[in-house]
Amino acid sequence: MWGVASWPVTLEYGPVILRPLKNRDKQSWQEVRARNRDWLQPWDATNPQPSLGLPSFREMVRSLNEQARAGSALPFAITVRDDDGVARFAGQLTVSNIIWGSAMMATAGYWVDRARAGQGIVPAALAMATDHCFQSLGLHRMEINIRPENGPSLRVAEKLGFRDEGIRKRYLHINGDWADHRSFALTAEEVPGGLLSRLGY
């Protein structure tokens, strides 16, 4: 390991705030997930060993925090400051699989409340996280992997200029089966001015 991800960190631009996911987010997280079950299920990661199930919210947060302290993940809650000035939980963005050494790369994954979709929240969140990884942590490559049927996420990749690197067959276990994904990536050299500048921010 030739680097370390400083954690915790909070990133903010306009009304969109990325901050560490915490145990106190449990109620908001569960409410948003329950309300968006049909919207999120087709893209949700599942356990290929069904008998083991998925971790509880607290187990997930504990595992992500351990990864963050080890410098291998950045687990963010996506929050949005509304007109009343209150920042409300809107989704999750996790930078994971951070590899240092000669790779200096990471993978980003995200989901957002359907009520917030189409408001530019995910592009801003992904741009902030990528800029932080490139400009503050010194990483070289950011990757996102998207189901070919996931039109909204494909539009996020297009909007931010992520390069399409093709199909990865049966890449991740999603919604109960191994699913193909399209892989998109950017390197730091491709966005010297940062991704937020591509959004006109």
Could you explain the architecture of this structure?
By secondary structure, this protein is an alpha+beta fold. The chain has a single domain, classed as Aminopeptidase (3-Layer(aba) Sandwich). The chain has helices spanning 26-35, 37-40, 57-69, 121-136, 151-160, 195-198; strands spanning 11-13, 16-20, 74-81, 87-99, 105-112, 141-146, 163-174, 177-187. Strands 1-2-3-4-5-6-8-7 form an 8-stranded mixed beta sheet, sandwiched between helices. A hairpin with a 2-residue loop joins β7 (163-174) and β8 (177-187). The N and C termini lie far apart (33 Å).
Topology:
Elements: E1 11-13, E2 16-20, H1 26-35, H2 37-40, H3 57-69, E3 74-81, E4 87-99, E5 105-112, H4 121-136, E6 141-146, H5 151-160, E7 163-174, E8 177-187, H6 195-198
Parallel strand pairs: 5-6
Antiparallel strand pairs: 1-2, 2-3, 3-4, 4-5, 6-8, 7-8
In a few lines, what is going on in this structure?
With 201 residues, the chain is α+β, with helices and mostly antiparallel strands. Helices cover 28% and strands 33% of the residues. It has a single domain (11-198), classed as Aminopeptidase.
